[in-house]
Amino acid sequence: MKTTRATFLLLCVLVMANASAQAQFVLSTASDSVQIFTQWGKEKPMKKNSPKVLLMRIENSNPTPVEVVFDINFIDELKVVETSNTQKVKVGAGSAGRPKRVKLKFKPAKYNPEDVDGVDVEIEEVRGL
């Protein structure tokens, strides 16, 4: 019984460590208690040959819902190679210590995501709803 429990706990720790090592969102920009985190990942994580996409997580710490207006600049060799259309996303109200989160996926329309070195996300406006 103790061996089974120890094996199960070890397996859980390994799975959680692997998941946290893969999901490394980086803070890209922040404004008015809204933070945007980004990371590159697969469009369909369980498929081996799935294309690369920009994964975004927007967090709202405001006690009221907001609409976030932002642009994404895709960068290659220190040059902006493509700029997204202006994006508008509604994010619900957060509470103390628990921001409301929205998850999104983007990929460049004309540029191969494999060739993109990085991104720059610019928040144009955060307005209350």
Describe this structure in words.
The protein has a four-stranded antiparallel beta sheet with strand order 1-2-3-7, with no helix packed on it. Strands 4, 5, 6 and 8 form a four-stranded antiparallel beta sheet that branches. It is built from one helix and eight strands; from the N terminus they run H-E-E-E-E-E-E-E-E. It has a single domain, classed as Immunoglobulin-like (Sandwich). The chain has 129 residues and is an alpha+beta fold.
Find the count of extended strands (DSSP E, 2+ residues).
8
Which class of secondary structure composition applies to the elements? alpha+beta
Give the N-terminus to C-terminus distance in angstroms.
Answer: 55 Å
CATH class: Mainly Beta
Q: Can you name the CATH architecture?
A: Sandwich
Q: What is the share of helical residues?
A: 10-25%
CATH fold naming: Immunoglobulin-like
What is the count of helical runs? Answer: 1
Radius of gyration: 18 Å
Q: For the report, how would you describe the main beta sheet? A: 4 strands, antiparallel
Low-confidence stretches: none
Overall domain count: 1
Strand content: over 45%
